TrEMBL record:
One of its GO terms (molecular function) is ADP binding. InterPro entries: Apaf_helical, Disease_R_plants, LRR_dom_sf, LRR_R13L4/SHOC2-like, P-loop_NTPase, WH-like_DNA-bd_sf, WHD_DRP. Residues 250-608 form the Disease resistance R13L4/SHOC-2-like LRR domain. Keywords: Plant defense, Repeat. It comes from Triticum urartu. The lineage of its organism: Eukaryota, Viridiplantae, Streptophyta, Embryophyta, Tracheophyta. The keyword Repeat applies. The keyword Repeat applies. GO terms for biological process: defense response to bacterium; innate immune response-activating signaling pathway; plant-type hypersensitive response. Residues 130-200 form the Disease resistance protein winged helix domain. This is NB-ARC domain-containing protein.
Length: 636
C-alpha cells in the first residue's frame, strides 16, 4: 500500500488491472463545524452569534481538511472572540485551500499559526524538529531538554518544570502538537508532531541554522554554518556517515536514534549541553571515555543496551541535572555520582543506591532503585535526607530470613517517614514473589501529606487498607493489593476526596455478600480497574455511583447474572470485561458478552466494549453441542 497527498503520484503507482486509488473525502460541513467549535469553545453547538458568518467563511477556506480546521481553531482559541480578530485570520488564509487543499496552502496555514506564537513557544516548538517523523515524544523528557537548552526562564520563583508543562500544554492547546497518551487526569504525557508540521519546522530550523539533521542517505544537506544542534536518525549501517566538513565544536546538543557506533568522538563536542542516545546498536563503553570532558553537559540520556559501564569520573560533570540510564547493561553506578550537586533527576535500571546518596540534595526524582542482600542498609537511611525528593521508585528484594532484615526495614521506614514530611508526592514499590512489604501496613506515620500517587507492583497483599492511605486527601492515583476485598475496603477508599484512578487487586472478594458501591463513594473517580480471581457475588453499582467514571475494567464470572448496575454509570466511555470461564458452557459466555454489549449500548456515551476471557480451556462441554437441528428434534 502506498500513501501520498498527490493524486498524480497515487495514479502512477497503480497497475491498470488490479490497483485502485482510494481518496479520503473531506469532512462534511456539519462535521467541520462540530470539530471547529468543539476545539475553540469546548462544545460543538456553541458559537457566539456575531462570529457565525465569519466562521462559515473560514471553514469554506479549510475545505474540510481536519488538519487545517484544527490548526486554525487552535490559533483562534488563543485570540479574542471579536469579528476583527477572526476577520484578520480569515484574510490571512490563502484563497485556494477550499478548492485544492494541497501542500502549499496547508503550509500557509501552518506558517500562520507558527508566526502567531510568542517567541518562547516558537523556540520550544522548533526544537521538536530534532525528532524523527512519527516519533512518540515523552512530555517530561522534552521539558527537561528544554530546560537544559536554556529555553525556560525562571519566572517569579516558579519551578522550571512547572513552567515547561505550561509551555507544553499551550502547544497542545494550539494544535501544534498531537496528543498520543492521555493519562487518567486528562494530562497529555506524550505527543507526536504531524508530518506536515514537522516539514515546516525542519525547513525553518534549516533556514535559521537552529538544528542540523542527517536521517538517511536520501537526505542530503548542505552545511553552510557551524552546527548548533545535531540530530542523527539512522536505521541502516549503510547510512551512517557524518560529513567530514561538519563543524561540531559549537554543537549544543547531540541526539541519536538508531545506529550510533560510528558517532563522532565526544572530545569534539566542547560545549555540549544535551546528549541523548537511543537504540544505539553495538556501542561500547569506550565511546564514552571523553564524557568527563563535557563540562557544560546538563542532560544525559542513554538508552543503549550494549553499554555496561560509565566513566568513574562522571562526578566531574557539575552542571548535570538529568541522568537517565534506564535501558543499559550498567550494573553499578560510578561512585563519583554522589558529587553531582545539581542533579535533579536520576533514572536507573534496577541499581543499588550508591554510598553517599544523601549528598544529592537537589534530587527530585529517583527511580528505580533495588534493595537486596548486597545493598548497604546505611544508604537507605541516607534517603531520608533528600528533602526535595518528589518521586521515588524502588524494588524490594529482602527475604524475611535475611539476618539484617529488621535493619533494612527500620532504615527504609525511617527515611519514608522523613520524605513524607518533606516533598514526596509519588512512590512506586515493586517486589518479586516471596518478598513481603508487610512493614508498610502500619508503620508510615505521620502520613505523607503531599502524596498524590501510590503504586504497588508486588505479589504481597495488604490484609486491609493501611491507615496512612486512608488519610491521603491529595491522593489522585492508587494502585494497591488488598486481600480480601470487603465492603469496608470500598467504603474507606471511596472516601478519598481527590482519587481519580484506582487499581484494586485481590485474590478474593467477600464470598457471601455483594460489594456495593453507593452514590456517596468515589465521587471524583474517572478510571477503575478491579482485578479479583475469586469474585464472589461481584460488584453492584447503585444509582449515582461513580458519577464521573469514564473507564472501567471489571471481572465477571460467566455463570453469574448480568445485573451489576451498569445502567447507573452514565459517564462511562470504555468498558473492559474479563470473563472467568471456569465451569461455564461456551454458549453462556457468548450470551453474556452480547448482553453486556446491549446494556452498554443504552448508556449516553455508548462506551467502547472489549472482552478478555480467562480459563477458556476449563469451559464445560455442552451436551449435544455440534448436533444438527434435525438430530436434536429427532432425539426429543
Amino acid at each position: 500500500m502506498t500513501t501520498t497527498r498527490s493524486i498524480d503520484i497515487a495514479k502512477s503507482c497503480c497497475s491498470r488491472r488490479h490497483d485502485r486509488v482510494y481518496e479520503i473525502m473531506p469532512l462534511t460541513t456539519a462535521n467541520s463545524k462540530s470539530l471547529f467549535f468543539k476545539r475553540i469553545f469546548g462544545s460543538e453547538d456553541i458559537c457566539p452569534p456575531q462570529l457565525e458568518e465569519v466562521s462559515s467563511e473560514i471553514l469554506k477556506k479549510c475545505g474540510g481538511s481536519p488538519l487545517a480546521i484544527l490548526t486554525i481553531a487552535g490559533l483562534l482559541a488563543n485570540k479574542d472572540c471579536t469579528n476583527e480578530e477572526w476577520e484578520w485570520v480569515y484574510n490571512s488564509i490563502g484563497s485556494t485551500l477550499g478548492k485544492d487543499p494541497g501542500v502549499e496552502e496547508m503550509r500557509r496555514i501552518l506558517s500562520l499559526s507558527y508566526d502567531d506564537l510568542p517567541h518562547h513557544l516558537k523556540t520550544c516548538l522548533l526544537y521538536l524538529s530534532i525528532f524523527p517523523e512519527d516519533y512518540e515524544i515523552e512530555r517530561d523528557r522534552l521539558i527537561r531538554r528544554w530546560i537544559a537548552e536554556g529555553f525556560i526562564d525562571t519566572n517569579g520563583g516558579r519551578d522550571l518544570e512547572e513552567i515547561g508543562e505550561c509551555y507544553f500544554n499551550d502547544l497542545i492547546n494550539r494544535s501544534m502538537l498531537q496528543p498520543v497518551e492521555i493519562q487518567y487526569d486528562g494530562q497529555v504525557v506524550s505527543c507526536r508532531v504531524h508530518d506536515m508540521i514537522l516539514d515546516l519546522l525542519t525547513s525553518k530550523s534549516m533556514e535559521e541554522n537552529f538544528s542540523t539533521f542527517f536521517r538517511n542517505q536520501n537526505e542530503i544537506l548542505v552545511l553552510q554554518h557551524k552546527i548548533r544542534r545535531l540530530s542523527l536518525s539512522y536505521y541502516d549501517h549503510e547510512h551512517i556517515m557524518l560529513p567530514s566538513t561538519a563543524i561540531i565544536s559549537h554543537c549544543r546538543s547531540l541526539s541519536i536514534v538508531g545506529y550510533a557506533e560510528k558517532m563522532p568522538s565526544l572530545s569534539k563536542f566542547r560545549v555540549l549541553r544535551v546528549l541523548d542516545i537511543e537504540n544505539g546498536e553495538e556501542m561500547e563503553s569506550s565511546c564514552f571515555e571523553h564524557l568527563r570532558k563535557l563540562f557544560q553537559l546538563k542532560y544525559l540520556r542513554l538508552h543503549v543496551r550494549s553499554i555496561s559501564a560509565l566513566p568513574e569520573q562522571l562526578g566531574e560533570l557539575q552542571h548535570l541535572k538529568t541522568l537517565d540510564m534506564g535501558w543499559t547493561k550498567i550494573t553499578k553506578m560510578p561512585k563519583s555520582i554522589v558529587q553531582l550537586q545539581h542533579l535533579t533527576c536520576l533514572r536507573v535500571g534496577n541499581l543499588e543506591l550508591p554510598e553517599g546518596i544523601g549528598n544529592l540534595q537537589a534530587l527530585q526524582e529517583l527511580s528505580d532503585i533495588k534493595v537486596n542482600r548486597d545493598s548497604m542498609a546505611s544508604c537507605l537511611l541516607e534517603l531520608g535526607s533528600l528533602t526535595k525528593l518528589k518521586i521515588l521508585g524502588l524494588r524490594w528484594s529482602i527475604v524475611s530470613t535475611h539476618s539484617k532484615k529488621d535493619t533494612f526495614v527500620d532504615n527504609l521506614v525511617s527515611s519514608l517517614r522523613k520524605l513524607g514530611r518533606f516533598s514526596l508526592r509519588s512512590i512506586c514499590i515493586r517486589s518479586y514473589h516471596g518478598y513481603s512489604v508487610e512493614f508498610l501496613l502500619d508503620s508510615w506515620f505521620p502520613s505523607p501529606h503531599l502524596m498524590q500517587k501510590f503504586q504497588m507492583g508486588t505479589y504481597y497483599n495488604f490484609p486491609r487498607v493501611p491507615p496512612w492511605v486512608a488519610s491521603l486527601d491529595k491522593l489522585t492515583y492508587l494502585d494497591i493489593n488488598i486481600d480480601p476485598v470487603e465492603e469496608e475496603t470500598l467504603e474507606i477508599l471511596g472516601e478519598l476526596p481527590a482519587l481519580l484512578f484506582l487499581w484494586l487487586m485481590s485474590k478474593s472478594a467477600a464470598p457471601k455478600q455483594r460489594l456495593i458501591i453507593s452514590s456517596s463513594m468515589f465521587v471524583c473517580l474517572r478510571e477503575f480497574h478491579f482485578t479479583c480471581w475469586s469474585n464472589g457475588e461481584g460488584l453492584m453499582f447503585e444509582a449515582g455511583a461513580m458519577p464521573r467514571l469514564e473507564k472501567l475494567w471489571v471481572p465477571f464470572d460467566a455463570g453469574s447474572g448480568l445485573d451489576f448496575g451498569i445502567q447507573h454509570l452514565s459517564s462511562l466511555r470504555h468498558l473492559a470485561v474479563e470473563i472467568i470461564c471456569i465451569g461455564a458452557p461456551a454458549r453462556d459466555v457468548e450470551a453474556l458478552e452480547e448482553a453486556i454489549r446491549d446494556a452498554a449500548h443504552l448508556l449516553p456515551n455508548r462506551p467502547a466494549v472489549e472482552f478478555r476471557t480467562w480459563d477458556d480451556e476449563k469451559m464445560v462441554e455442552e451436551e449435544g453441542r455440534g448436533d444438527t437441528e434435525e438430530e436434536i428434534h429427532a432425539s426429543g
